[in-house]
Amino acid sequence: MRYRAGLMLLFFMFLFVLGACQNNGNEGTHLDKEKSTEQKQEENNYLYESEAVKVTKTLGWQQQDSSSKYVEENIIFQNGNVKAVLTFVSKEKSLDEIKSELKSSFRNSEKIDETEKYLSLISNRKESIRIDIYLHRGEEQTGILIFMAPFEDYKTNQTSIEELKKNIQYF
Amino acid sequence: MKKTIMPSIIFGLLLLFVGNVYAAEPVVNPNSELYDTSRIIEELEYELTEENSEKALLQDEYADNRLYEAELSLDEGDLEKAEELLEDYEEHVKQVEEDMEVAKEDGEDISAVEETVVKNVQKRSENLRMLLERQDLSEETKAGIMKALENQQKAEQKFLAAQKKAEESLQKAKERQVEAQQKVKERQEEAQQKAKEQQEEAQQKAKEQQVEAQQKSKERQEEAQQKAKEQQVEAQQKAKEQQIEAQEKAEGQEERTSGRP
Predict the structure, then answer these.
(1) Which H helix or E strand runs over A87?
(2) Which pLDDT tens digit goes with each residue over B210-228?
(3) Which chain A residues touch B47 with a CB distance below 8 Å?
(4) Paired residues of A76 in beta bridges
(5) What is the pLDDT of residues B130-181, one digit of tens each?
(6) A20 vs chain B: nearest CA distance in angstroms?
(7) Partner A contacted by B40 (CB < 8 A)
(8) Which among A160, A157, A113, A105 has a CA at the least distance from the CA of A132?
(9) Where is the signal peptide (chain A) (predicted)?
């Protein structure tokens, strides 16, 4: 009789432990779900994110799909007739070197303005393009943000350019 | 002394020129961390440009860049990269042709652009020939350059043919314009002659009408005079009759008064 009562007690304890485990398991799933929702929400808030940079969603701007083989290290954003390129180079390259090389890649152009971390150029063509380059010196890398737009569209799009600039966080 | 210095300077400059064909036009080194970004900038600049003739000029400039970069890669002994860049170079040359075709179809005036492109194509052919003379080329790179040169010559011939055609059609258009101007002149002269004749005719008619009117007015005047004369005669006749009647009346009255006792 005692033996039977002991077995029953053991059985109930087993059921209790099992129930508790299940409950814990549910709580775990619930926490996981919460976590992934948060994560998703966070992802949804960004236009682009990596270890080095986070670009918060900005009205009118979207990441441009490109079939170019050179896009790997360059993230391209687009807002109508305005394009933006975000890229990184190692800290070994000086700011002057970066500016000089970028000026070479926009060959037929004139300098409008230049500071230590900024360079503005305009192409000498029938359809002039304005290019504004902003540099951000990080601990390991230098972030380069390039805006390009037809000259006549640049002024009207200045606010959206400033908005995107503000929404870029370098780490 | 001067005689020995000058040739040395000229020889030195010549060496510099031959050694680096594009020395005056710097580009981003293909080994640079920023090279891919520079190519992205090119692609975006091309995307943002609307006119096809301008697009053709951009592709022409990019072809120049690739050739210079290929030369840089050869200088650095990176033959594989040089070959890759020569392939890209050919793509740009093809794209120039395509953009020019589209520009023509769209009715853009491409005469000036064509002239620039032809000049650049000829200059690049010369540079490719100079590259072929280098001693450090592998057979594959040589083949790549030969192919680029061949395509370049084809493109050059095509551009020249297109230019000739454009010149011919321009000449034809000019002739048509002269012909049209001549026709317009003839028609103008014809119209002037006709207008003159019409004016003379109108003047003649007006003169005739004037004479006729004068004639009519004279006739009317004579008729009126005749009528007036007749009326006068009639009035005189009437007056005479009235006078006679009055006389007779007076004589009758006189007789009646004298016949009274």
Answers:
(1) strand A82-90
(2) 999 999 999 999 999 999 9
(3) 83
(4) A85
(5) 888 887 888 888 888 888 888 878 877 877 787 777 778 778 888 999 999 9
(6) 58
(7) yes
(8) A113
(9) 1-19
The token pair that represents A69 in the structure block: 């083989």
On whether any CB of chain A is under 8 Å from the CB of B52, the answer is: no
Cβ separation B33–A85 shorter than 8 A: no
Closest-CA residue of B relative to A149 is B48
Angle, CA of A136, A141 and A143, to the nearest 5° = 35
In this complex, do A68 and B43 lie within 8 Å of one another by their Cβ atoms?
yes
Query: What type of residue is A98?
Result: I
Q: What share of chain B is helix, strand, coil (3-state, %, to 5)?
A: 85, 0, 15
Dihedral in degrees, nearest 10, Cα atoms A95, B62, B67, A131: -10
Please give the C-alpha separations between residue B260 and each of B253, B254, B256, B257, in angstroms, as whole numbers.
11, 10, 7, 6
Query: Any CB–CB contact under 8 A between A95 and chain B?
Result: no
* Contacts of B94 by beta carbon, 8 Å cutoff, 6+ apart: B151
**B118 neighbors B160 (Cβ within 8 angstroms):** yes
